[in-house]
Design a protein that fits this description.
By secondary structure, this protein is mainly β. It has 3 domains: 76 residues, Sandwich (Immunoglobulin-like); 114 residues, Ferric Hydroxamate Uptake Protein, Chain A, domain 1 (Beta Complex); 103 residues, no CATH class. The protein is built from 3 helices and 25 strands. The strands form 7 sheets. It has a 5-stranded mixed β-sheet. The protein has a 5-stranded antiparallel β-sheet with strand order 17-18-19-24-25, with no helix packed on it. A hairpin with a 4-residue loop joins strand 21 and strand 22. The longest helix is centred in the N-terminal third of the chain and has 20 residues.
Length: 351
């Protein structure tokens, strides 16, 4: 019985020696292109389907049989390495590898998404949305933008600051209501109107034709116009100034400071418009000898028709915070000055 045990143990030891003589330990370290240890690198030997991955120190270890083999190294973001090795009679073979970063060009990436304006257009309301990005840093007002929209008709009696009438699909007056950020424009007084509100302060204009959404809470039968002021998430400064004929000056200042950590925000929206409006108009002058108007028109300067408007809107509070999207307190000041225009026949008289 003891002899059988001895034979078994001897055969087992002989098998281990034979296996050791027919295999070899292949190991080493793998580094990235910066010389740092690369963890999780795949090390694979084809043909015998053996493989492993590197540890936190970039170390790998394989036991391979005698013969010729090909080691394949794979790591995301780096070029694949293939190296042929020969396993002989030595007990150990050390092979280190250094990875090389792989750069490649992607095919076209197409991201499809809808803007807020497009989402609003697809609502159940008959609504047109004007994105005013194309009007940035252009000295114009809300009326000039609306006049480009089908179904909106604006008639202005003169130059900057003159009276105007707005109709929407043929309806006008109190049947069409106007809003600023959802607040009726009537609440801001007569000094703030569509013909003096600077386009640089506007992000988009919503024009509702017919049914008005409930959040505007208006009884307008003909529709509504909602002017959305600019709303940025970062600090910025935007200044514009334009000089025109007839003593016209148009300027605006739009600025914001926001602390990215606390969300504390200060907003300033302001504009100043001024014009002498001393353009020439054709009139039939009164002839003092005959007491009748001349038969021919004479171009005379339109005097005492100056106009100026200004607005200062300051808001402060918290924006884009975890407990509030917007929590602002504001102060607005607006003023409108307009001289009384002269009657048409009070130009230069014929002597």
């Amino acid at each position: 019985m003891k002899t059988n045990y001895l034979v078994t143990i001897t055969f087992f030891l002989f098998s281990l020696v034979a296996f050791a003589q027919n295999s070899q330990e292949v190991s080493g370290y793998i580094y990235d292109d910066k010389g740092l240890a690369a963890e999780g690198v795949s090390v694979f030997v084809g043909g015998i389907s053996k493989g492993t991955i590197t540890n936190a120190k970039g170390y790998y270890q394989l036991v391979l049989p005698k013969g010729n083999h090909t080691i394949t190294i794979n790591y995301l973001g780096y070029k694949t390495i293939q190296q042929k090795i020969s396993v002989g009679n030595s007990a150990k073979q050390v092979i280190n590898f250094r990875l090389e970063e792989d750069s490649f060009d992607l095919d076209d990436v197409v991201i499809i998404a809808k803007t807020k304006a497009q989402q609003l257009r697809e609502e159940a309301y008959a609504v047109e949305v004007i994105d005013t990005k194309t009007f940035e840093n252009i000295s114009t007002n809300a009326n000039d933008i609306l006049a480009k929209l089908p179904g909106v008709n604006i008639r202005q009696s003169g130059g900057l600051g003159s009276d105007f009438s707005l109709s929407l699909n043929g309806l006008s007056g109190k049947q069409v209501r106007t809003f600023i950020d959802g607040i009726p424009m009537d609440y801001f007084g007569s000094s703030l109107t569509l013909n003096n509100f600077s386009a640089n302060l506007i992000s988009q204009i919503e024009v509702y034709k017919g049914v008005v959404p409930i959040h505007l809470s208006s009884d307008a039968l003909g529709g509504a116009i909602n002017v959305i002021t600019s709303n940025h998430k970062q600090s910025f400064l935007d200044v514009s100034y334009a000089l025109g004929s007839f003593g016209t000056d148009i300027s605006s200042l739009n600025a914001q400071y926001r602390n990215s950590k606390t969300g504390f925000t200060i907003k300033l929206k302001s504009f100043y418009n001024q014009s002498d409006n001393n353009y020439k108009v054709p009139v039939k002058l009164l002839n003092i000898e005959t007491g009748k108007d001349d038969k021919f028109y004479t171009d005379v300067e339109h005097f005492h028709d100056g106009y100026s408007s200004k607005m200062f809107w300051l808001e402060t509070g918290i924006t884009a915070n975890k407990f509030a999207d917007q929590l602002l307190v504001g102060l607005m000041y607006s003023d409108n000055y307009k001289e009384i225009q002269q009657p048409a026949n009070q130009g230069k008289l014929t002597l």
